[in-house]
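Researcher: Good morning. I'm working through a list of sequences from a screen, and I'd like to move beyond sequence-only analysis. For each chain I'm collecting a predicted structure so we can compare shapes side by side. This is the next one on the list. No need for commentary yet; just the structure.
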Amino acid sequence: MTVTVETLEKLERKMTLTLPVGSIQSEVQARLKKLARTVKMDGFRPGKVPMNVVTQRYGYSVNYEVMNDKVGEAFFNAAKEAKLRVAGHPSITEAQTAPEGEVAFDAVFEVYPDVKIADLSSAEVDKISAEVTDNAIDKTLDILRKQRRTFAQRAHDASAQDGDRVTVDFEGKIDGEVFSGGKAVDFQFIVGDGQMLKEFEVATCGMKAGESKTFQLVFPADYHGQDVAGKSADFMVTLKKVEAAHLPEVDEALAKSLGIADATVEGLRADIKKNLEREVKFRLLARNKQAVMDALVAKAELDLPKASVQAELDRLMESARADLKKRGIKDADKTPLPEDIFLPQAERRVRLGLVVSELVRSQNLQATNEQIKAHIEELAASYEKPAEVQHWYYSDDARLAEVEAIVLENNVTDYVLAQAKVTPKSLSFDELMAQNT
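Model: Good morning. C-alpha cells for this chain:
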C-alpha cells in the first residue's frame, strides 16, 4: 500500500489509499465460505447452501463490509505511520483512477492543531476569596428554623402578614374566561416566601379571614405557563384562614433534631460553619477556575477543527432537546434549534479543551491517583455515610473520569495562578452565594 498526504486548507488533509484488489477478493471469499457454514435458507440444510447461492444473496453486503474494514484499517495504519493526530472521522470516497490491480480511495479529514500558548506571566487574573462569617451562620440557622416551623391559627380578625400561612380560594380570568390552573379551593401558601407571584402576595397581605378582593395581575413574559405568559388576568381571592408561624428556638433540641453529634448550640454552629466553608471552597474553585480558563484561552493561538466543533455542537443541541423534553415540551425532538445559538459555546469548549490538553501535556499536569482519592473523600465528607458515596464513585468508570477531569482542571488552575499576575479580590459571603457558578 502506498500513501500520499496532501494539505488542503489549514487543518484539512487529503490522503490517497491504494489497496490490492486480490487481497480484498480473498477476504470476501473467506468470509463467504465462513458464512456458508452457518447460513440458513429455505430448501437447504444448514451448512449445505451452494457457494454460488450464498454469493448471490450475500456477496454485495460482504464485499461492502470488507471494503469498509480494509479501508478503515489502511487509513488507521497510514495515519499512525505519518504520526497524524486525526480529528473526527474521515470522509472517504473511491478515487476515479488507480494503478492496475489496485483500488484507490481518497480520505479527506482534519488533524488536531498545533497549540501555541504565549508567556503566561503576562496574563492577568482576579483571584476571588470569601469567608464564612457569623452573619452567614445566623442566616443558615434561620433557614433551618424555617424548614421546621409550625403554624397556629390567628385570631379571626388578624390580618395576614409576611411569614403567615394563608388558606385561600381564588379564580383568575383572562378576557372573561377562567384559564387552566387559574382556579383553586383551599389553596395554602406562605406570604412572602415567593411561592406566588408578587402581585398575588401583595394583594393577599393585610386581608382578614372571610374577606374577598379583586385585583389585576400581569404574568411575566417568561412565565412557565406558556398559555398565560405575558398576559393580564383578573383575579378574585377569598381569604379563609390565617396561621402564624412559630420557629423553633436555637437550642440543644434543635441541634439534636438535626442529627448533630455534639448536640449543643456551639456544636450546631460549628457544623454549619464546616458545611458552609466546604460550599464556599467549591464555589471559589469554580469562579477562579473560570477566570483562569478565560486568561488561558486569551493567551493561546490555534485553529479549530471543524469536525470537533460540529461534534460539540451536536452534543449541545442534543442536551438542549433533552432539557426541553424534560420540561414537557411537545415534540421536543422536532423543535427547530438554530445552530448559531450554540456555535460560540461549542467553539469555546473545543478551544478550551485543546488548550488545556496542550498545557497538561507540556507541563505534566495529569491527575494522580492520590489527588483523585483526596477529591472523592472531600466530596463524600458532607454525606451521612461517606464510605457509601466513595464506593459509588469507584464503582463506575464514567464517574471516576468526571472526577479525574475536575482534578486535572484544578491542576491547570493552580499552574496558571502560579505563573500569572494575580490580583486578590474579596467578596462577601452573600455576594459569592448569589452568583451562579
